[in-house]
Amino acid sequence: MKIISPKILLASLILFAGFGLSATAYSSTVTVGNDPTFEAGGLDGCTNCGYIVGQTFPAGNYTVTSYSFFGFPQGDSDIQPLLFSGVNNGNGTTTFTVTGIGADQTVFNNGNTEYTFAFDLQSGSAQANGNTYFGFQNLSDSIVTFNYSGNSSNGGTFLLPNDQGPGGSFTLHNTSFDTDQQNDLNDRAYSIQATAVSTTPEPSNIVLLGTGLLGVIGAGRRKLFKA
Length: 227
Prior knowledge:
The chain is an alpha+beta fold and 227 residues long. Helix content is 19%, strand content 43%. The chain has helices at 6-24, 203-226, and strands at 26-33, 50-56, 62-71, 77-88, 93-101, 105-107, 113-118, 123-124, 127-128, 132-138, 146-148, 157-160, 169-178, 184-186, 188-190, 192-200.
């Protein structure tokens, strides 16, 4: 009886496993921030200011894909999404470093509404993990509505007084909880939310690939013993 060549068997098994991995991979979607469909009552008066939402993405490997917010542009307003790494210094401060900058978007609608834009990476990285924070900056007039939350775990936001560039690093207080203090944590809950996606093969596919490799090894051994 003719024995199948190990090379052919190997190629077939790898192809089969590859199809299995691509067909059964699944996407995990996570969000940070507050409800972007909610029209909050406030609109800050800070122009060319940046903000960091005070909660990280979950642990893991994610790619930020989009963001949504409820806004009231005063004329033509610009908004730019940002990503930061955050390190708690253990002394009541956190050091934030800009890791990713998305595309500047101009909003023309002069009425309250929800907006959604792709993150559209322009500089740095769109990757996010358990040390990554989402933020944004107004490049002209203020745009995103907010409420005072009174709770830092429910959307407390760090305020940055200037435009933020790639690699910029800022150490901000996270214990003095102020209403409007810049360069500090405040109790504003902005109506903005970022979305990130992680695509991971299911564990069963790894087993499938391992089984295929074992099959190749077994076929090679059988051919050796028959020789």
